[in-house]
Design a protein that fits this description.
Blueprint lengths: L1 E7 L6 H4 L2 H8 L3 E7 L12 E2 L9 E2 L1 H10 L10 H6 E12 L2 H8 L3 E5 L8 H7 L2 E4 L8 H13 L27 E2 L2 E2 L19 E2 L2 E2 L9 H19 L11 H12 L1
Parallel strand pairs: 1-2, 1-6, 5-6, 5-7
Antiparallel strand pairs: 3-4, 8-9, 10-11
């Protein structure tokens, strides 16, 4: 079971998030554990001060190192230099920062397989650099923009990783067939003798989804989805995935698991 620990100066921020949907169900089923630690519990002055002015001058405030170090200590987190390779393989301490490596589905998969993921949520100008140096083995950014705190970023990462923990999603296959999902080779070719009506995403974006009614505001559901021909549906969906990826995220095609047929479709789509 993976346990997520969040260190923050705003513990209440997470209340609604934990009480709904998959996050709440996963905890109730005992498939993931989540803990939130209030950094102010680890201050020792009357004002419960967690921040201070930056050395060297400049804008804003910086989260002080002592409350963070004490909070990490209370969770039994050791400095990186004191963790064995096995410990580093089981547990990660993540600094959320726009300067980090961009978060991806591949990272979500990796985190879902660990025993413990500890998130340090920055605020103001960020966290005293020595905390990163001593305790953090990775820095993650959720995108090329600046948020006012790491809380949203940790919630995003926790959500994405948690739904990949086996048993969390009702239907295990759904994470293979969605955007950035597994490639065909790693998925069973058919289920109970019925050919699949979709390909593994293989790093592509998802295809469009439709439900009832068959017609909505003058737009009909594509004919192919109504006919019950699994092979035709599968072909159509794959073309839609390729078209959407080419249009919105062409760089993903470089890493995607593409077949000869896929490449032909792409050639046709590029020619317009
Ligand atoms: N001075 C920092 C910089 O320019 O890189 C920005 C600090 S930001 C206002 C405050 C905190 O929000 C950061 O310490 C980090 O924890 C969080 N944060 C902001 N943007 C983020 C992002 N794109 N990904 C992850 N965390 C982010």
């Amino acid at each position: 079971m993976v346990r997520f620990e969040i260190l923050t100066i705003f513990p209440e921020f997470f209340q609604g998030f934990f009480e709904h949907g998959v996050v709440s169900r996963a905890q109730k089923k005992g498939l993931v554990g989540i803990g939130v630690t209030d950094l102010r519990q680890f201050t020792h002055d009357r004002h419960r001060t967690v921040d201070d002015r930056p050395f060297g001058g400049g804008e804003g405030m910086v989260l002080k190192p002592e409350p963070l170090a004490e909070a990490l200590g209370s969770l039994g987190v050791k400095p990186v230099a004191e963790r064995s390779p096995e410990e580093l393989g089981r547990e990660t301490v993540v600094l959320l920062t726009p300067q980090g490596r961009p978060f991806t589905q591949a990272m979500a998969r990796e985190l879902a397989g660990l025993e413990r993921v500890v998130f340090l949520c920055g605020r103001y100008e960020g966290v005293d650099e020595r905390v990163r140096e001593i305790y953090c083995d990775r820095e993650i950014s959720i995108g090329d923009y600046v948020l006012s705190g790491g809380e949203l970023a940790s919630a995003v990462i926790l959500d994405a990783a948690m739904r990949l923990v086996p048993g969390v999603l009702g239907n295990e296959a759904s994470s293979e067939f969605e955007s950035f999902g597994a490639d065909d080779a790693s998925i069973a070719a058919d289920v109970d003798g019925v050919p699949r009506s979709q390909h593994g995403a293989g790093g592509l974006l998802d295809y469009p989804h439709y439900t009832r009614p068959a017609e909505f505001q003058g737009l009909a559901v594509p004919e192919v989805l109504m006919g019950g021909d699994h092979a035709a549906v599968r072909k159509w969906r794959r073309e839609q995935q390729l078209a959407k990826t080419l249009k919105n995220r062409p760089e993903l095609l470089e890493q995607a698991a593409l077949t000869v047929a896929d490449r032909k479709v792409l050639e046709r789509l590029r020619r317009g």
